[in-house]
């Protein structure tokens, strides 16, 4: 085999090597991107929902919005560390429709979010992401409990 044959056989090797060495991380990056979008939408949802309440209930919902914004920022930072790229999702978020119905939707989103974060924490090989996902799961569970309590108090 001469030098030309070797060079021909190696053409495209870089793209193949990149796919092999990043296998699995693409899926993890997509998971991160979805969590970022979810958190940004949750923050907007809670901000809108808070306008329908007063006093402590309003403050609690605004606190949830602040938590969700913090989650999004942390996830965006982790995404940047992993990829070297910023990710700011676009697209519509679910609109707030009515006070109690929207609070119920928020409760369901929090439960689903906690489950998704727990599952992601179990599946990731990254200790940093495991920590972030576990922290976010605990926050989502707390939000769900507080949303449930608010429904019971206002039903």
- The name of the CATH superfamily reads Ferritin, core subunit, four-helix bundle
| Low-pLDDT stretches | 15-24
Largest sheet: none
Which class do the helix and strand fractions yield? Answer: mainly alpha
Order of helices and strands: HHHHHH
**How large is the share of residues in beta strands?**
under 5%
The CATH architecture designation is Up-down Bundle
Number of separate domains: 1
Q: Tally the helices.
A: 6
What is the molecular shape?
elongated
User: What helical percentage do the residues reach?
Assistant: over 70%
CATH class: Mainly Alpha
The average pLDDT value, as a whole number, equals 89
| Radius of gyration over C-alpha positions, nearest whole angstrom | 21 Å
Please, could you describe this protein's structure?
Helices cover 81% and strands 0% of the residues. With 155 residues, the chain is mostly helical. It has one domain (28-154): Ferritin. Helix 3 (25-50) runs antiparallel to helix 4 (55-83) and helix 3 runs antiparallel to helix 5. It is elongated and about 80 Å long. Residues 15-24 have low confidence and may be disordered.
